[in-house]
């Protein structure tokens, strides 16, 4: 069977692949610690579970409008107003089956063949594949470690062509945890406005910020930037609702309408009861969100110090999300490997610690550790990595 050309080079999501591999080993009885998964380890808060059960009991188990329940759109609009001081109409919002699906649908409706999308590296694994699936061309721009993995307006200007359609800004970033400042966003935004580049602002880690940092959406910086931006967000990370698959896009009405039409032929609508649960997530008290954020910050403080003490691992302190992204090429060399991929493989095979190699994020000298797991497991995992290094260096 010949598969379609468009999937011939499609690779599985590295993050999901590692997570599945770790689970497989665990199920086979191995004592694996998975630091691969980018998903909060907390259960979805009770009041959200209750709302889903109530929706089921009351028979809200039917198709909904393709773009999402009007009552959920209303809550999303209120959330954007409350948190970002941004005003949207329901026609400027689409609810999708996760932020990933919102991004996928967006690229399908904005890209023609060979249209270019600027993707700063390190990037979240799915961006390039989604752009390619829409026949677009990812244009990579290196966010250098000395600039906290962020790109500059000068770098952006250098890669612009008449084919540049959009840029993805992911702040806080997966995998680096870095955030763009207001000034940096304004400077990048200026280049985008001058060159009519659509800004895709992936804000899924908005609620996970540390050291007193606050989230800034590029869309809130001026009415022109709001017009130029599609915000992508959802409840997966903020409310520990990864499996419910609810995300959304907010922005230009024409784009949102096209996305809604496309969704009507692909998913029909996001799961009805998950939409009711999301209404409760946005309506209810946000204490659980803050409690989870607090737990992540506590883990970060402890684990960051421990990791940086391991020979060959060099890590910047993340400001948000729940990942550490150390440079580990020196560690790989010290352990006798040519590259970080091989080190990651050995750590899984010999120490049963699952990490995601930086190659999946377009930064091969790095490795991603998710700290969305218990402190006890995290400390054990870092001890195992330290032991591995000690053992291999001594050889
Ligand atoms: N964007 C980024 C940067 C992510 O890390 C994720 C994680 N899955 C997503 C989007 C998609 O989130 P979801 O589809 O679970 O809403
Ligand atoms: N976003 C998470 C991660 O980066 C979940 C997995 C995925 O959707 O790729 O690990």
What does this structure look like?
The N and C termini lie far apart (49 Å). Helix content is 44%, strand content 13%. A seven-stranded mixed β-sheet has the order 2-8-7-6-5-3-4, with helices on both faces. It has 14 helices and twelve strands. With 395 residues, the chain is of the alpha/beta class. α4 runs parallel beside α5. It has two domains: 5-43 and 287-390, Aspartate Aminotransferase, domain 1, CATH 3.90.1150.10; 60-283, Aspartate Aminotransferase, domain 2, CATH 3.40.640. The chain is globular and about 65 Å long. The model has no long low-confidence stretch (mean pLDDT 96). It binds 4'-deoxy-4'-aminopyridoxal-5'-phosphate (PMP) and glutamic acid. Glutamic acid (GLU) binds next to α1.
The string of secondary-structure elements, in order, is HEHHEHEHEHEHEHEEHHHEHHEEEH
Unreliable spans are none
Structural class, by secondary structure, is: alpha/beta
Number of helices, where a helix is a run of at least 4 consecutive DSSP H or I residues: 14
The distinct bound ligands, ions and cofactors come out as: 4'-deoxy-4'-aminopyridoxal-5'-phosphate, glutamic acid
Count of strand segments: 12
Domain tally:
2
Mean pLDDT: 96
Shape, please? globular
Under the CATH scheme, which class of the largest domain?
Answer: Alpha Beta
Major sheet, described briefly?
7 strands, mixed
Query: Roughly what percent helix?
Result: 40-55%
Q: Might you state the CATH topology name of the largest domain?
A: Aspartate Aminotransferase, domain 2
